# Entry
Amino acid sequence: MTQTTAIERRERFLTRLLAGRKWYGAEWYMTAVGAVIVVFVLGMTVASFLTPHLAPYDPEARVGDPFTPPSLRHFFGTDQLGRDIFSRIIYGAQIVMQVALLSATFSLLVGVPLGLVSGFLGGRLDQVVSLIMDSIYSFPGLILAIALAALLGSGVLNISIAIAVVYVPIFFRLVRGQVLSIKQELYVEAARSIGAPGRVILWQYIFPNVIPSVVVVFSLNIADAIITEAGLAFIGLGVDPSKPDWGYDIYRGRSEMVGGRWWPVTFPGLAIAAVALGFSLFGEGLSEILNPRLREL
# Structure
C-alpha cells in the first residue's frame, strides 16, 4: 500500500513537472537544462569530496607523458607535467564551487538585510547606505575583485570575500527597490492600520515577496562568480596553485596553443563555460517562470 502510494506521488509529480512545458514554454526548457547541469556539477563536487577515487587518476600526480593527446586512456589528454586533465577537471570543481557558493552566500547575507532595512526605514540611513553601495557598484567588478584578492591574499575564504563584495550592491539595489514599491501596497498599509510592529511588517509582509527575485539573482551571481574566480586564478590570485583549478590550468596551458596543443586550455575552458551556462540558464528560466505577468498572457 505504501509503495503504491509512493509510486502514485512520483507519477503525479512528474505529470505536473512535464505539464510546465505547455504553461511556460521555452522558459521551462531553460530551467530544466540549467537544473540538470547544476545538479550534475554539485553532485560531482560533493562526490569528489567524499570519494577519493572518483576520477581515474590522482589529479596532482604524474600519470603519463607530458602533453599526451586525448585518448581512451586519458580522455582529455595530459598537461605539461603529465597530469590527467580529466581528473583535474573533476576535482577542480571543488575550489570553483566553494568560492562561487560562498561568495554568493556572503553577498546575499549582507546585501538582502541591508536592502530590507534601508528601503523600509528610509531617511538618512537609506541615503548613507545607498551612497556606499553605489560607490562600490561604480567600480568594474573584476578590477575590484582583483584589488581585494591582492589585499586579502589567497585562500578559499579570502577569495570568496573579495568576490562577495562585488555582488553585495546587486542584492542591495534589487531588494531596496522592491521594498520601496511593496511598502506602498494596500496590504502593508492595512497591517500598519491594525498596529502591526515594523519588524513584523518587514519580515512577514514584505520579505516573502522579495524571496523569488533573490533566488534568481543568487543563481545568476553564482554563474558570474565562477567566471570571476577563474579570472583571478588565471592571473595568479587564485586559491592554491598546487591544487586543481580550472582558471589556473588555462593559464598554465595557454602558451601551448601555438604548438598545436589545444587540450590543456580547451577542456578547462569548456568546463567553466558549461557550469556558468548552467547556472545562468537556471536563473534566467526561474526569472521568467516566477514573473507573475506571464500568467496573464
In short: The chain has a mean pLDDT of 85. The domain at 33-56+84-296 is CATH 1.10.3720.10 (MetI-like fold).
